[in-house]
């Protein structure tokens, strides 16, 4: 195991760059103390694992693997129970089994989990019934409750985020290494999903997978060897003080790693090539992602590649496009062509959630299942037309039966949103909707 506690080389200076979406902490000394505390603590992930993911992201950029990244928009401290973590892991494993069969390649499983505690917001304040307070920015910054005290940023929350991430990761490792990921078990869960008449249209698919499983068994495949899977953690590298405090140097290679997660991404609101967030990720060896919205220019994109993957190392940089179903076919091709002409490899991933957010007539922030799928289809079509590789999907989902997104086989309508709307920020696909998406993406993967 690499030694990630070794003294740290100088981290490239993001402090001199413009930094957006950061909390303003009232107590600078308290912030400094938390930073010092975090720096003294063990890493959450290890260099060898991070390098393994980088190699798998490289495979995905070449069509030799497919990335499935999913989890809450905002994880909460309150909802970090074993059941909630288990159901998310289960949902991702079930989706991955379907996608693996369809793609005939390994599926790289990455949770938006164990660290997704900081949120960029479109407004600095929130007003309810004439009262205006600072916006909720994720549990690692402030509290969701709508009171003046709750909304004050508290640096001690970063320490809590570190501890929650550690316990979440511990449970994920236990599930995925301890037999919970057994392919036979995962397949039987998927059979349960198929038993619902709402998903009858996928039946022939399920029958095929069934047959493939029996073939494997007859051919003597050692299913016990398939009981363990690699499962990685990712989150948005938003909170600069936290991410900086989690950087460690690998004593064998001398490289710096952000040990808060295997993969970190920069959000659409903080992705300026000359800004602090990109500078922070420039200095670390993790695989990184950048969210790419519909207004991104070719020059912005090439500048991001110059900063984040100057040498064109495969697996280093993923471009996570979130254009909106209406705009993807117009906005994506020029960007793909620019990257193609540049020649440095990237892993293209679709985030069909963030460009498709609407407000329902009864006031819920929501998304339609059909619109989400329309963006995924647009993503596949553009890449197929240009001869590039659709490398993966990035989705906001949960393993619970929430009612936050409209539609899908269960036909969640506006009235149903009131039933179980639990997200702290953006609406997530529920367990059933997530599996339905996996079957639809499977059809796209088979072309
Ligand atoms: O999750 C992403 C962003 O934080 C979110 O889409 C912004 O939401 P807001 O417009 O409610 O701030
Ligand atoms: C904030 C998010 O996305 P984006 O940066 O693409 O808006 C997110 O993934 O929750
Ligand atoms: Mn979100």
TrEMBL record:
List cofactor names only: Mn(2+); Co(2+); Cd(2+)
Instruction: Specify the pathway.
Output: Metabolic intermediate biosynthesis; chorismate biosynthesis; chorismate from D-erythrose 4-phosphate and phosphoenolpyruvate: step 1/7
Any idea which positions bind phosphoenolpyruvate?
A: 112, 268-269, 291, 322
**Reactions that this protein is recorded to catalyse:** D-erythrose 4-phosphate + phosphoenolpyruvate + H2O = 7-phospho-2-dehydro-3-deoxy-D-arabino-heptonate + phosphate
**Know the name of this protein?**
Phospho-2-dehydro-3-deoxyheptonate aldolase
User: What keywords is this UniProt entry annotated with?
Assistant: Amino-acid biosynthesis, Aromatic amino acid biosynthesis, Cadmium, Cobalt, Manganese, Transferase
Q: Which SUPFAM superfamilies match?
A: Aldolase
Q: Which NCBIfam families match?
A: DAHP_synth_II
- The species is Actinomyces howellii
Q: Which family does it belong to?
A: Belongs to the class-II DAHP synthase family.
Q: Which GO terms describe its molecular function?
A: 3-deoxy-7-phosphoheptulonate synthase activity
Lineage, top-rank taxon, reads Bacteria
EC number(s)? 2.5.1.54
Keyword DNA-binding on entry:
no
User: What does the entry list as the binding residues for Mn(2+)?
Assistant: 73, 354, 396, 426
Which InterPro entries does the record match to this protein?
A: Aldolase_TIM (IPR013785), DAHP_synth_2 (IPR002480)
**Example GO biological process:** chorismate biosynthetic process
What's noted on cofactor binding? Binds 1 divalent cation per subunit. The enzyme is active with manganese, cobalt or cadmium ions.
């Amino acid at each position: 195991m690499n030694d990630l506690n070794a003294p740290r080389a100088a981290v490239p200076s993001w402090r001199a760059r413009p930094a957006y979406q950061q909390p303003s902490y009232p107590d600078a000394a308290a912030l400094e103390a938390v930073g010092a505390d975090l720096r003294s603590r063990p890493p959450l992930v290890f260099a060898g694992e991070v390098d393994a993911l980088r190699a798998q992201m490289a495979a995905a950029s070449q069509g030799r693997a497919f990335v499935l990244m999913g989890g809450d928009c905002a994880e909460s401290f309150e909802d970090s129970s074993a059941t909630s973590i288990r159901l998310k892991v289960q949902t991702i494993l079930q989706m991955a089994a379907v996608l693996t069969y369809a793609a005939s390649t390994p599926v790289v499983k990455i949770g938006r989990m164990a660290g997704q505690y900081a949120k960029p917001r479109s407004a600095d304040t929130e007003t309810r019934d004439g009262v205006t307070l600072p916006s909720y920015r994720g549990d690692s910054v402030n509290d969701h409750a709508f009171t003046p005290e709750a909304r004050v940023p508290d640096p001690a929350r970063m320490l809590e985020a570190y501890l929650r991430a550690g316990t979440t990761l511990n449970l994920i490792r236990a599930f995925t290494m301890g037999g919970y990921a057994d392919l036979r078990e995962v397949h039987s869960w998927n059979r349960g999903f198929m038993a619902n008449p709402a998903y009858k249209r996928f039946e022939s698919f399920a029958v095929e997978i069934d047959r493939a499983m029996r073939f494997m068994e007859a051919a003597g495949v050692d299913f016990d060897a398939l009981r363990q899977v690699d499962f990685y953690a990712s989150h948005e590298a938003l909170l600069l003080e936290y991410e900086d405090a989690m950087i460690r140097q690998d004593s064998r290679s001398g490289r710096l790693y952000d040990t808060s997660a295997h993969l970190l991404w920069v959000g659409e609101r903080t992705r300026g090539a000359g800004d602090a967030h990109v500078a922070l990720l420039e200095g670390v060896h993790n695989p990184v992602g950048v969210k790419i919205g519909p207004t991104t220019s070719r020059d912005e994109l090439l500048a991001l590649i110059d900063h984040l993957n100057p040498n064109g190392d495969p697996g280093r940089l993923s471009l996570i496009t979130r254009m909106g179903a209406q705009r993807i076919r117009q906005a994506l091709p020029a960007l793909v062509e620019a990257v193609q002409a540049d020649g440095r490899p990237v892993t293209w991933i679709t985030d069909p959630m963030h460009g498709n957010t609407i407000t329902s007539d009864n006031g819920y922030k929501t998304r339609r299942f059909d619109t989400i799928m329309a963006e995924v289809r647009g993503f596949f079509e553009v890449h197929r037309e240009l001869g590039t590789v659709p490398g993966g999907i990035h989705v906001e989902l949960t393993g619970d039966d929430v009612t936050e997104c409209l539609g899908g086989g269960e036909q969640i309508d506006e009235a149903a949103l009131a039933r179980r709307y639990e997200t702290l920020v953006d609406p997530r696909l529920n367990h059933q909707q997530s599996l339905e998406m996996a079957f639809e993406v499977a059809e796209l993967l088979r072309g």
